[in-house]
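Running co-folding for zinc ion.
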Amino acid sequence: MVDKEKIRKAVRLLLEGIGEEADREGLKDTPDRVARMYEEIFGGMYEEPEEHLLKTFTADSSDMVVEKDITFYSTCEHHLMPFYGKAHIAYIPDGKVVGLSKLARAVEVYARRPQIQEQMTAQIADAIMEHLKPKGVMVVLSAEHMCMTMRGVKKPGSSTVTMASRGVFLQEERLQNQFLSMIRL
Ligand code: ZN
């Protein structure tokens, strides 16, 4: 698990670094609060997606399965600031399907790590290919990055969209378009 003592020390140094009095009333419990919060928001470091993706059941259908609007909260690894938004996943089963809540769980495993959005998109797609072994998968993430909007580089509310396609989604543009029209970004 996370080393909370290290985090506490680091947060104290951070506060001193910006010129704060780390011992003043409002801040004295902050290092411990942050340490406990980090244990939760970086809990994905100690989990693997297959814990969820291997809970499959048999299905004859090879029609597209879509789970859209999966809300996620992650942390940008460049600035340690939140980015958050929606994940949308489509896959074409090859004899097996997974409970829809398990896809959301897999998203959460990767969201709760220091991340960049492009990498997280690819990791979700690759984990589904590896463990569920469908004919293909496509993952779309749409997110607002606080490190951009809070610093005024971009306008608030603007979003970054990333996509990853694997298997038949790479070969058949028709499938990509069908999925994209369903999520209407
Ligand atoms: Zn950032």
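Result summary
The two ends are 37 Å apart (CA to CA).
The longest strand covers residues 65-76.
Job closed.
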